[in-house]
Amino acid sequence: MEAFSDGVFAIAITLLVLDLHVPEVGDGSLAHALVRQWPADASYAVSFLTIGIIWINHHGLMRHIERCDRVLLSLNIFLLMMIAIVPYPTALISHYARTPNATAAALYYGAVMVTMALIFNALWHYAIRAGLLVQGADPRDVSGITRSYLIGPLLYGTATLLAFASSDASLVMYAAIAIFYLASATLWGRRAPA
Amino acid sequence: MEAFSDGVFAIAITLLVLDLHVPEVGDGSLAHALVRQWPADASYAVSFLTIGIIWINHHGLMRHIERCDRVLLSLNIFLLMMIAIVPYPTALISHYARTPNATAAALYYGAVMVTMALIFNALWHYAIRAGLLVQGADPRDVSGITRSYLIGPLLYGTATLLAFASSDASLVMYAAIAIFYLASATLWGRRAPA
Amino acid sequence: MEAFSDGVFAIAITLLVLDLHVPEVGDGSLAHALVRQWPADASYAVSFLTIGIIWINHHGLMRHIERCDRVLLSLNIFLLMMIAIVPYPTALISHYARTPNATAAALYYGAVMVTMALIFNALWHYAIRAGLLVQGADPRDVSGITRSYLIGPLLYGTATLLAFASSDASLVMYAAIAIFYLASATLWGRRAPA
Amino acid sequence: MEAFSDGVFAIAITLLVLDLHVPEVGDGSLAHALVRQWPADASYAVSFLTIGIIWINHHGLMRHIERCDRVLLSLNIFLLMMIAIVPYPTALISHYARTPNATAAALYYGAVMVTMALIFNALWHYAIRAGLLVQGADPRDVSGITRSYLIGPLLYGTATLLAFASSDASLVMYAAIAIFYLASATLWGRRAPA
Hints:
4 copies of one chain form a homotetramer. By secondary structure, chain A is an all-alpha fold. The first copy, chain A, has one domain (2-191). Chain A has 8 helices and no strands. In chain A, helix 4 runs antiparallel to helix 6, helix 5 runs antiparallel to helix 6 and helix 6 runs antiparallel to helix 7 (139-165). The A-B interface holds A 1, 3-4, 7-8, 10-12, 15, 18, 69-74, 77, 80-81, 84-85, 87-88, 91-92, 95-96, 99-101, 104-105, 107-108 and B 3, 6-7, 9-11, 13-18, 20, 22, 25, 27, 29-31, 34, 44-45, 48-49, 52-53, 55-56, 59, 182, 185-186, 188-190, 192-193.
């Protein structure tokens, strides 16, 4: 299960590059065209970090799961479906950035992220209830993970609703969530050996 | 063999996202355009679940196979050829949904699925006859798998023939087969520890 | 090294599907259009089988190699470069089939195949001379593999030169080589346990 | 971590083939068109070798790292972001080769390479300082690797600055760096057993 998941994560994260298109400028300035398409670069970076962080979290989750049944496999398939679709809303955002349709693109992106965060929670709760966790897992670790996962749908839900007010604010919040998780993951990593 | 197969499954399932195209609406409504292209989303979801379920079954099958010879490798290559081509009939269906050509697209999709189900059966029967199964496998398990695999070509064959009557009915049946296998896999998984 | 190679094989073989394009027929017959593009389907199948067989052979080769140095890694990179490029000449052949340019496309395809077969031989000979083989490998097995690899450049060279006379004959021979290797691999596999 | 990284390397290196486009020549000469697009082939080869060599180095680095914390995972995500984007500047170079925009394309390519080389150094230095290396690693080996990694940003920085004088010279230097690393890796590999 982990090899297959790692594969889907690795492919989805690498397919994001296909959303970056060679600008057709003829004899015009390629440098200016590349600067002008910064929204595409920014959404590439945000989606790359987002998938990367979800992968780190998925990896951490898998270390706590000892056994695997078909319900878990099925939930994992639904999680991967959300991961694998990320390049599409990313393309929507980079294509419609700074147009009136930016709100619709940001909402689509947010809907994918909220669904993904909900499935992540479902997967974790199922693993706990079905007794699939590693024997002797520290209950404080388990409830710590439970709490940190619960924040996900709330953060992404807020960022999605923000799109109705301002699609730019929504995109900045998607980036902030990625950086927040990366920083907290990093701090958590530093604390771990202590 | 399993690492390579997992790779092909993971890539084919992730390439499905390339069938989702950013709609060109200019200043028109992106939201309406996204809603109008629901057949593309639906065929993405059906093909994703279908490949996902075949992967779960392939995974289950591999656990029963202990050794691997070159005939099995060759049959596996043919199986992977059918898996890897799935994004193409999926694109045909999403492109020609609700047009007179939907029947041809549904037939092509069904032909791939029937062929794949037949190769799956051939692979399993070869593994049994060539003595490649795990020593001491429970004969009831083996014959249970044999029966569940036999249903595949029948179900997909019926869905394919349905396309002559109604391509929509055919597509609904492809979705139903995926959900049926997912549900039975899930139920089977729950029963397993009992 | 084997995980990375398996990845490149799996991706290259799966990317072949991107050479199959949804035909734009409007209200015309999709069924006829799909039948007319059989050269694309045929070159998909031949390239898929070819990469699949090279993967089986690569897999067999790796079982005989115990250690791995950086020269071997470098030769492997060059081999993978040829594997990864296969979707491109496949696209050339399917695009220019049955046109005057079919010869050029068949020659390009053949040049890739001959180069790949030569690198395969170089990799094997280097592994033997550098003492990287598994200790106690049967010398008859080793020289048997050496002989079977030597046929590769000759077969692909002949198919390439055939393109000057008839590009169709050349394509048929590429298919025949794939089927020949598949059949001999299969027969060899059957004989193995004896 | 290594499986996921190997996946991203393998996919990025294989996606490079998508930068090679079937030339549309109608009844004109495909052979001439293929010869004329040698810059696309050359940039394919340079990027393939570059990613291949970075993979070999990444592989070598991982053998010296025993434990893995979340900081290291995060740095690795940033490294993979640079690897995964390589097909994009490669497409820029092959599209704008021999036009006035070749300088901008070469600068973009160089900026990616310099950033990647800097992250590679950061990852290695973090692993040393955080005590993640294999116990009992030979200090001379470690400082040898440190020195060889330090050359990377300098070489790529020089090649990038060269683009202001001549984009062709810059491209030749990118190729030379790849060949230099491949040759030194190969020589180093030969020396290793001595």
